[in-house]
Amino acid sequence: MSVAVTTRETVGTSEPRPPAARRSRMPKPVAAVVTVSLLAVFALGPVVWMIVTAFTPDEDIFRFPPTLDRGFTFDHFAAVLTDATLMRFMVNGLVVSTATALLSLVIGFAAGYAFSKFRFIGRSPIMYLLLVAQMVPEVLLLLTLYTSFDALGLLNTYGALILSYTTFTLPLSVWMMKNTFDSVPDELIEAARIDGASEWRIMTSVILPVTRTPLIAVGLFAFIRAWNDLAFALTLVGTEYQTLPAGLSLTFLGEFQSSYGEMLAASLVTSIPVVVIFLALQRHFVSGALSGSVK
Fold this sequence. Notes:
Layout: H1 2-14, H2 28-54, H3 58-61, H4 75-81, H5 84-117, H6 123-135, H7 142-152, H8 158-182, H9 186-194, H10 199-210, H11 212-227, H12 231-235, H13 244-252, H14 260-293
């Protein structure tokens, strides 16, 4: 008995434990902070450059080598805010983006509810066709949309931009709302039907209040998509109906001019509405996007 104990003690103490795995020289929290900092510099660098250049006089913008000893001016902002053409571009962008967001919300809400709560012939093929439509590059459909709108007499109208933008925001909008409605219990809808509510009353009084956050996410996505477009605004409409991206490029960039100071000042001014809307609805956008992306 004592031999067994001695042997066990000898075995347990004679051989040292193998050394632990060598830890990384950089602690995990430090590595995370460094990674996030690099990503922030990459993402915010162009924004900082835009802000600095917007307040820099023209003679200092192209100074080489660049130095920190730069002038400071508000002339670019004064020129932008007194330009009636740029204000018209902003109004056009607000009209088109708001209409696109509303149309995407209405159609996405109705289609998502139908795909989620009803069973009909062709339901699955149509849903997968929406996914395929989302994969098609938008520029490939530009010529088709141009000829179609020309035949319908919609060229050089708000309708051409609104319909084209809605075409590309609908697939994601429908799928997000469909996945959101999948999480709504069928018992809630059945109880409303037993009480005599119509499908329209169910959608507006029962479903709409519990899906408000995903709807905000869909509307914000569609608004930003329409606000930032350049190719369709340059192709489908003329100067009278063009939105900000197209208007800025045509106003400040040309063969014999490059008013970078005024262009970046205009970009800064016109980005304020989108930034304010996004910051105000950021919580709804993140939670709505997550709730609409998984079942």
